Amino acid sequence: MPEENRFAGLSEAVDEDDSDDSADESTSDAESVDGDSSATTVEYDSAADETATDDEPSADSADGESTDADDPTAFPFDATEKKTVYVRPETIDALEDARALVDAQLRTDHDVRDLTGREFYDAVFRLAAADTDGLIEELLEAREE
Predict the structure, then answer these.
(1) What are phi and psi of 20, to 5 degrees?
(2) Where is the composition biased (Acidic residues) (predicted)?
C-alpha cells in the first residue's frame, strides 16, 4: 500500500474556493471517503429546490425571465446546486462516453445543439432516482465483482 497522502493537493484546491464554508464541506467530504484509492472526485450540477436558492426579490425576476426566454436549456443555471460525488475512473469514463453519444443523438435526431453539463447530469440523476430497482441490481452486481 503506497504511503502517499492521496489528499495532498486538497488544501490547494480548497484555497482556490472563494467561500470558507464550501472549503470546510469539501474537506470533511474528502476525509469521510473510505479506503478505495481508485476513486475519482466528480463535481456536477443538480437541480435544487428553488425556495432554497431564491435569494432575489420578485421584482428582479421579471428581468431574469426575459433572459431565461433566450436560454433553450431545460432549466437555468441558477436553479442548480453544486455537489461532489466519488466515482471510479472507469465509471466516469463510461458516463462521459454516454454523454458524447447522447449529445450526438440530440444533434442528429432532434436538432438540439446546446446540451449543457447541468442538463445531462440532472437527467442522469433523475433517471437513477426513478429506477431504484436498477440501482439495487447494479449495487449487488458491483459487490459480487
Answers:
(1) -70, -35
(2) 13-34, 46-71
Q: Where are the domains of the chain?
A: 36-144
Residues 120 and 52: their CA atoms lie apart, in Å, by: 22
pLDDT in tens, 98-143: 999 999 999 999 999 999 999 999 999 999 999 999 999 999 999 9
Q: Which three cell numbers stand for residue 77?
A: 443555471
Dump pLDDT digits (tens) for 94-107: 999 999 999 999 99
Distance CA 17, CA 129 (A): 30
Distances (CA, A) of 18 to 78, 105, 138: 18, 38, 37
End-to-end alpha carbon distance in the chain: 21
